[in-house]
Design brief:
With 422 residues, this protein is mainly alpha-helical. It is built from 22 helices and no strands. Helix 5 crosses helix 20, helix 8 runs antiparallel to helix 16 and helix 16 runs parallel beside helix 18. One of its GO terms (molecular function) is galactose transmembrane transporter activity.
């Protein structure tokens, strides 16, 4: 993306903005990857089938689609910095809904809380991703986003391990005992299980509220994306809609598919491990392994982009790795198959950092609208895992992973050709 002089204040502010945005990426990584634990947890606590349990991911990620237009308006009103604070407050409200949901063991209220959290994240993502993208030179944008990705995925690696050790503890024996209980005793045990999330989510609410206040009081510089330098203005002359940028529209589709396969890799691996006969106390850590693989990928991105490999070439390589690991998961079994799903974290790592700068390149005054459109693509995390859940009920958890192969093929197409279409 061509920089304009209006971006210079952000660049002069040094590393301080990167540290602040890094803290944001850590927080929404922590909240996002709790879903991998909530899916098997709520399946037991609320007595759900596979399809119903994956409504957890649907409710969370569909908020990105619904709220993306609102996010653009919020940023136009509040700006980037205060928009981030607003997003954090909304996330705290969503987390607050988990407390009455747990007390009443009401699945719909859990889903509402997840939707509200996703709504806050939609605003936060719409602000933070283009902010870090245009905070420096375009050719190193993927490197900066990779740094943010490390913050995000380290939090994501910690989240399921921490929450899983609390709410999934002894769930296998818990399920076995339920079958021998009367309806009254069974309901009491399920109520006790549901209450396990209350204390962790009270802590999450406090952290979100404190961070919102700190962001509001911070010295983060505002960036004027409405200003364009001469070359960007000339190329955008006569354009009246963000939909007139084919590389952006294809980027949204690519992001939709990428988020879908990333969520599948992270949120299904615990349930998939259980279906392969692995003990719950072991399977609890599988999402952590997926996210550690992503952190390794991000580190490679920081080292290699753009010095040794271009952003689009990194995307090509990652798409091919995704196909290879998906096929290995389908045609192997046990720990080998689970390991292949975990290694999808490595394949997925550089996709987000590469897609954002490629899709936003040259948008100029359309950057906020383009970012909002890309955030709508995050709804892939709602739709594709839900399809995976339906395929799991129809066939089995392993064969349902076929859904990932065409997704990775389209991502490869975007890296090869789609991102270059003007």
């Amino acid at each position: 993306m061509t920089q304009s002089s209006s971006y210079q204040p952000a660049q002069k502010s040094g590393l301080n903005p990167i540290f602040i945005i890094g803290a944001l990426f850590f927080i929404f990584g922590f909240v996002t990857w709790l879903n991998s634990v909530l899916i098997p947890y709520l399946k037991i606590a609320c007595e759900l089938n596979h399809f119903q349990s994956y409504l957890v991911a649907f409710a969370f990620y569909i908020a990105y689609l619904v709220m993306a237009p609102v996010s653009t308006k919020a940023l136009n009103i509040f700006g980037f910095k205060n928009g981030m604070a607003v997003g954090l407050v909304i996330m705290a409200i969503g987390a607050l809904l988990f407390i009455p949901a747990a007390m009443t063991r009401t699945y719909n209220l859990f889903l509402l809380g997840l939707f509200v959290q996703g709504s806050g994240l939609a605003i936060l993502q719409t602000a933070s991703n283009p902010y870090i993208t245009i905070l420096g030179p375009a050719e190193s944008a993927a490197k900066r986003i990779s740094i943010m990705g490390i913050c995000n995925k380290l939090a994501g690696a910690a989240a399921p391990a921490i929450l899983g050790s609390i709410i999934l503890k002894d769930t296998k024996s818990f399920e076995e005992n339920l079958a021998n209980l009367s309806e009254v005793a069974k309901a009491a045990q399920l109520d006790e299980l549901a209450a396990r999330v209350i204390t962790p989510y009270m802590a999450i609410i406090a952290v979100l509220a404190i961070l919102a206040f700190l962001i509001y009081r911070s010295s983060l510089p505002e960036i004027d994306t409405n200003a364009e330098d001469e070359s960007v203005a000339a190329s955008n002359s006569g354009k009246t809609s963000v939909l007139q940028f084919p590389h952006l529209v294809l980027g949204v589709i690519t992001l939709f598919l990428y988020v879908g396969v990333e969520v599948i890799a992270g949120d299904t691996i615990i349930s998939y491990g259980l279906s392969q006969g692995i003990e719950p106390d072991t399977a609890t850590f599988f999402t952590t392994y997926t996210l550690i693989a992503m952190v390794v990928g991000y580190i490679l991105g920081i080292i290699c982009i753009p010095k040794y490999i271009k952003q689009e070439n990194a995307l090509k390589l990652c798409a091919l790795l995704g196909i290879a690991f998906a096929m290995l998961a389908i045609f192997s079994s046990g720990y080998t198959s689970v390991l292949a799903i975990a290694l999808l974290g490595l394949a997925n790592a550089l996709m987000w950092p590469a897609i954002w700068p490629l899709a936003l390149n040259g948008l100029g005054r359309f950057t906020k609208a383009g970012s909002s459109l890309l955030v709508m693509g995050i709804a892939g995390g709602a739709v594709i895992p839900l399809l995976y859940g339906a395929l799991t009920d129809a066939f089995n958890a392993q064969q349902a992973y076929w859904i990932m192969v065409p997704c990775y093929l389209f991502i490869w197409f975007y890296a090869v050709k789609g991102s270059k279409i003007r």
